[in-house]
Amino acid sequence: MARWLEIIEKKRMTQAKEEYSRFGFTVLESILSKEHLFELRSVIKDLSVNNSIDLYKDRSGLERRMEQFTFKNTATEELNNEIRELLHFLTDKSQVLFKDKVNFKPPKGEGFFAHYDGVFQFTNSNGDIRNGWYEYGNEYNNILITLDDFTRDNGPLEVAKNHRGDFEELLKNTTCDGSPNLKTDVEDKCDFTPLICGAGSVIVFKHSCPHRSAANNSQQERGSLYWTYTPSENEGIYRQYFKDKADSQNKNKSLTGNLK
Length: 260
Ligand SMILES: O=C(O)CCC(=O)C(=O)O
Ligand SMILES: [Fe+2]
Hints:
By secondary structure, the chain is an alpha+beta fold. It is built from six helices and 13 strands.
């Protein structure tokens, strides 16, 4: 059993499981130890200066995110296995990693417009239109590990109850411009909860939960690890996704957000 999973009370885990199935999101508050968090931050720092890692900047040139690093370090590899156990418990399904990123959100770093994850269309290298992440599966579970406290000032993640529907139904709620951003009238009907929580918390949410965040208006970085899983036995899906992404002309690569 994972070193941090075993410290969570059974009652808390059962409550998280119920919340997850009712609302599509739940938060396990500050469950990583200080030492574990310290190790993770330092591993991420090292990875972010490693030339073989994909780093993206925002419109102001600030560090936005890095991707595809989990299998380049044993600490992140182990954590991935621990998260898979957690998700197995929460969903009763075996899950594999689909994609990984760290969102850095430094001071003044951009926020994110309200969006679903993966609900957009893109054109592949043959010029064919493809249905976002639904090319690989139709259910995704995000795990966000807070590397810093999420406060009112630093643009915490805000999440609303998951929307039900297939790809076509969810797509109609989006701006249909190659991004997964929601139409303003859809966003206005959502009841967003700002997830104010300490560093080392684990936020679990479905890809079909509308979510957004404001810019970081504090003086400190608001970092998070953002891992996406899908129920499958096929671990090759991760490699395939990143290969297809590199080959595509997808606007979602530069998912942008609020500068305020
Ligand atoms: O970090 C955030 O505030 C949200 C990030 C997000 O939703 C994404 O990267 O898809
Ligand atoms: Fe997202």
